[in-house]
Amino acid sequence: MHRYDKLDFPLAETRRHLETGPIVLVSSCWQGETNIMTMGWHMMMQFSPALFGCYIWEGNHSYELIRRSRECVINVPTADLVDAVVSVGNSSGRSVDKFKACGLTAARGTRVQAPLIEECYANFECRLADESQIDTYGLFIWEVVKGHVAEAVSNPETLHYTGHGRFRVAGRVLDLSERFKPQNL
């Protein structure tokens, strides 16, 4: 007996089921110019040192700022910032200051020049660790060099993009820590 009846699925829609990481806001700074971009295409690649990979399209205004500075901040918003997340994603840093336009506050980092976004519950300062995949795939590989996480947010309701302007909100926790073997994931 099968639980689900399944149909062929369009391959171009695969991300709706496999892209489960939270939407992040990537902030950058190059020669005094700052910008923010909304991103869903990213992954953890290694734990120690912490390596984080993300896809950035070369047509995105942040691409050159990030490539030249070789650093950024990965900011993790919660669902209450969904309007800012969408506004950041729908505007271009070529023509607008996204911090001002979206009501976000730039905060000084401790290890990189790119600003942290104060309203996000977590911020991860990053330096470029490997540029070998940028030209071919647009894949930036970062080393996280400093993390800032609000202790008061124990169950963040993060946004997860599923395509076509739809988001899921995560927040429910299943604690299986007593029987789970983390090395197997």
Q: Structural class, please?
A: alpha+beta
Number of strands: 11
Task: State the strand order across the main sheet.
Answer: 2-1-5-8-9-4-3
Number of helices: 5
Q: Encode the helix/strand succession as letters.
A: HEEEEHEHHEEEHEEE
Overall shape: it is globular
Beta fraction: 25-35%
Q: What kind of sheet is the major sheet?
A: 7 strands, antiparallel
Q: Rounded to an integer, what's the Rg over CA atoms?
A: 17 Å
Estimate percent helicity.
10-25%
Give the mean pLDDT: 91
Which segments are poorly predicted (pLDDT under 50) over 5 or more consecutive residues? none
Alpha-carbon distance between the two ends:
28 Å
Describe this structure in words.
By secondary structure, the chain is α+β, with helices and mostly antiparallel strands. It is 16% helix and 34% strand. The chain contains five helices and eleven strands. The chain has a seven-stranded antiparallel β-sheet. Strand 3 and strand 4 form a beta hairpin. The longest helix is centred in the middle third of the chain and has 9 residues, at 61-69. The mean pLDDT is 91.
